[in-house]
């Protein structure tokens, strides 16, 4: 029986797990619950605990990551890692009685956004397994230059929401991730925070509204604070309030 709500595949950051990411996104999950079912899976590579995981999640291991620690990958390495990502996602979904074809969107955090971007790229490149993915959500994203180069001129053209913490030490990597997507499909929300999911009620509602909009396939040019990264056009004079959930 098909799910009653659209499903979003959720990919955690480096050094955490599906269970930890579920806890970290509890406020966003609550806001999205009437509209989506969020499905969490583990990455394939065992890892030490990531930044900010200890001490709160000290008893929540094992911990995983999607990619090696090499900050500059090679084409062969990225291709192999992409295959490992797809296999891990398929295994994780199968354990929950789900299929890749059941997923409508993909949401990633930190290193998980790079995995999410590659899945969207495969979907738009003709890989039938991932063809159902029609939108993406990138929370405090991360990217490597080789991934941008791998996607290259064939930038992904699906609605994507990019959450940037203005105090995030990896903010430049979040902005690099946007180079994987066509600018007309990108919506950016900035918030006063670091490398974590937002916890303020207004921020959570705003993010949930953008996720709803992206899922409808009608992206608009919306920037959380009216700050547009270089190369991403001008901000409109007025901002429509996002859908309340």
What does this 3D model show about the protein?
The protein has 245 residues and is α/β, with parallel strands linked by helices. It has helices at residues 18-24, 26-32, 75-95, 111-124, 145-151, 171-177, 201-215; strands at residues 7-11, 37-41, 45-47, 63-65, 103-109, 135-139, 160-165, 186-191. α5 (145-151) links the parallel β6 (135-139) and β7. Helices cover 32% and strands 16% of the residues. α2 (26-32) crosses α7 (201-215). The strands form 2 sheets. Strands 2-1-5-6-7-8 form a 6-stranded parallel sheet, with helices on both faces. Strands 3-4 form a two-stranded antiparallel sheet. The chain is built from 7 helices and 8 strands. The radius of gyration is 17 Å and the shape is globular.
What order do the helices and strands come in, and which of them pair?
Elements: E1 7-11, H1 18-24, H2 26-32, E2 37-41, E3 45-47, E4 63-65, H3 75-95, E5 103-109, H4 111-124, E6 135-139, H5 145-151, E7 160-165, H6 171-177, E8 186-191, H7 201-215
Parallel strand pairs: 1-2, 1-5, 5-6, 6-7, 7-8
Antiparallel strand pairs: 3-4
Compose a concise summary of this entry.
The protein is an alpha/beta fold and 245 residues long. The protein has helices spanning 18-24, 26-32, 75-95, 111-124, 145-151, 171-177, 201-215, and strands spanning 7-11, 37-41, 45-47, 63-65, 103-109, 135-139, 160-165, 186-191.
Kindly report the spatial arrangement of strands forming the biggest sheet. Answer: 2-1-5-6-7-8
Order of helices and strands: EHHEEEHEHEHEHEH
Mean of residue pLDDT values: 85
Strand content: 15-25%
- The tally of strands reads 8
The share of residues in helices is 25-40%
Unreliably modeled segments: 217-245
Distance between the termini: 26 Å
> Cα-atom Rg, whole angstroms?
17 Å
Main sheet attributes: strand count, strand direction, barrel closure: 6 strands, parallel
Helix run count: 7
Cα shape: globular
SSE-based structural type? alpha/beta
């Amino acid at each position: 029986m098909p799910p009653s709500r659209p499903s979003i595949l959720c990919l955690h950051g480096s050094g955490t797990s599906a269970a930890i990411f579920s806890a970290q996104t509890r406020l966003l999950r609550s806001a999205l619950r009437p509209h989506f079912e969020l499905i969490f899976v583990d990455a394939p590579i065992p890892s030490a605990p990531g930044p900010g995981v200890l001490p709160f999640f000290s008893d929540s291991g094992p911990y995983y990551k999607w990619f090696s620690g090499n900050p500059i990958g090679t084409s062969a390495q990225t291709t192999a890692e992409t295959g490992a990502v797809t296999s891990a996602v398929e295994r994780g979904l199968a354990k929950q009685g789900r299929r890749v074809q059941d997923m409508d969107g993909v949401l990633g955090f930190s290193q998980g956004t790079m995995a999410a971007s590659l899945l969207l790229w495969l979907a738009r490149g003709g890989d039938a397994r991932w063809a159902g993915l029609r939108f993406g959500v990138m929370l405090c994203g991360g990217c490597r230059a080789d991934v941008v180069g791998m996607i290259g001129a064939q930038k992904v053209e699906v609605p994507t929401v990019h959450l940037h913490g203005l105090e995030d030490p990896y903010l430049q990597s979040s902005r690099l991730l946007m180079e994987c997507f066509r600018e007309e499909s990108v919506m950016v929300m900035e918030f006063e925070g670091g490398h974590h999911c937002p916890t303020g009620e207004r921020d959570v509602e705003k993010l949930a509204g953008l996720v709803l909009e992206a899922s409808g396939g009608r992206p608009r040019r919306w920037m959380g604070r009216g700050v547009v990264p270089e190369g991403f056009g001008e901000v409109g004079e007025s901002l429509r309030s996002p859908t309340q959930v």
